[in-house]
Design goal:
The complex is a heterodimer of chains A (193) and B (136).
Chain A (H helix, E strand, L loop, with lengths): L8 H6 L4 H17 L4 E11 L3 H6 L8 E9 L3 E7 L1 H12 L8 H26 L3 E3 L3 E4 L3 H13 L4 E11 L4 E10 L2
Antiparallel strand pairs in A: 1-6, 2-3, 2-4, 2-5, 3-7, 6-7
Chain B lengths: L1 E3 L3 H13 L6 E3 L2 H11 L4 E3 L8 H11 L5 E5 L4 H10 L3 E4 L4 H11 L22
Helix pairs in contact in B: 2-3
Classes of the chains: A alpha+beta (193), B alpha/beta (136).
């Protein structure tokens, strides 16, 4: 089977169709099917950021807003990370949609619900990207950080920054639902080549 | 039957989908190693296997189970729908491949097909997408 090495993210921008939009639409469709609600895409950004600006890019200096962060390491076709963040109210609504119960305490089962939602979102996006570019991508089991604090997140970002040079490529998008109100911020961070 | 998935939630969703349709005696495994051990001891008639597992991967577990029993029926159920992954699963002997999220009826139809309870053959490349929003 023919494989190309390395995903040329810049090709996404110059492709005859808006590829990043297509990939994100597929991810949104998967989430709609999984959760039985209607998400809309409220923000898409594709481009390069300076290493120092990465934290602000995702968190806009408001670390306390984020209750849940899930990170997966990407390798083989790309070197990078896929990060999903959301707030407490959205996490509760996600759990309620799948179980009919609100989260009172976050136990192992509730964590597994949130992890699986992110796993499906990540798997859909990465698979679509890999199939489009013709390059397989491996990814680790998503790691969950509940009650994300500034220090924990800064630690994770330090790890992310350590793997690349000054410029970092990102694909960032937000999936939002009005009823129930859910916001899921997704960001794929790739090492510049 | 055996359900192999690292997510407790997904194991419950899959098990409840199958048991609602009348299938009892479902073995659950969280890791690939556990799946291989359970298979060697209990020989379930069908294995529903995730790929992204802690420890040995789903593909490695699939390979090990096939070494134990070349006629083992294994349905891969994964959020990873990269064509190379589907191709590799087929090479390792997967009987069918469904992507997450799945429609519960589609899962059951595939299970019936693999168990020989349906006339329609199931293609290994089959990839479907749907909802797994099953209340637990």
């Amino acid at each position: 089977m023919e494989m190309r090495m390395g995903i040329p993210i810049q090709e996404l921008r110059y492709a005859p169709i808006n590829v990043e939009r297509e990939l994100i639409e597929k991810t949104k469709d998967a989430m709609n099917l999984l959760l039985g609600v209607k998400f809309k895409i409220t923000d898409i950004k594709v481009g390069c950021v300076e290493k120092g600006d990465l934290t602000d890019e995702l968190f806009n200096n408001d670390f306390h807003y984020f209750y849940l962060t899930i990170i997966s390491r990407l390798s083989t076709g790309v070197e990078g990370y896929f990060i999903v963040t959301t707030d407490m109210a959205s996490s509760d609504e996600l759990s309620f949609l799948l179980t009919g119960r609100h989260m009172r305490i976050v136990n192992e089962f509730e964590e597994s619900i949130l992890e699986e939602i992110c796993n499906i979102m990540l798997g859909t996006f990465v698979s679509e990207l890999a199939n489009w570019t013709g390059t397989p991508v491996d990814y680790t089991i998503p790691k969950i950080v509940i009650y994300s604090t500034a220090d924990e997140l800064k630690g994770l970002f330090k790890e992310i920054k350590a793997f690349t040079s000054n410029k970092i490529q990102i694909i960032k998008f937000t999936l939002s639902c009005d009823s129930p109100q859910i916001d899921l911020v997704n960001m794929m961070v790739l090492a510049s080549r | 039957m055996m359900v192999v998935d690292d997510s407790a939630f997904m194991r419950k969703v899959i098990s409840s989908t199958i048991s609602k349709e009348g299938s009892e005696n479902i073995i659950e495994a969280e890791k690939g190693e556990d799946a291989v051990r359970h298979y060697a001891l209990q020989r379930p008639e069908l294995v529903i296997m995730d790929l992204n597992l802690p420890g040995i991967s789903g593909l490695s577990a699939l390979r090990e189970i096939k070494k134990i029993d070349p006629s083992a029926k294994i349905l891969v159920l994964s959020a990873n729908s990269q064509r190379w992954t589907i191709y590799k699963a087929k090479e390792e002997g997967a009987s069918a491949y469904l992507s997450k999220p799945f429609i519960p009826e589609e899962l059951w139809r595939t299970v019936l097909g693999l168990l020989g309870h349906m006339k329609e053959p199931i293609a290994v490349e089959q990839v479907t997408c749907g909802t797994s929003a099953v209340k637990t």
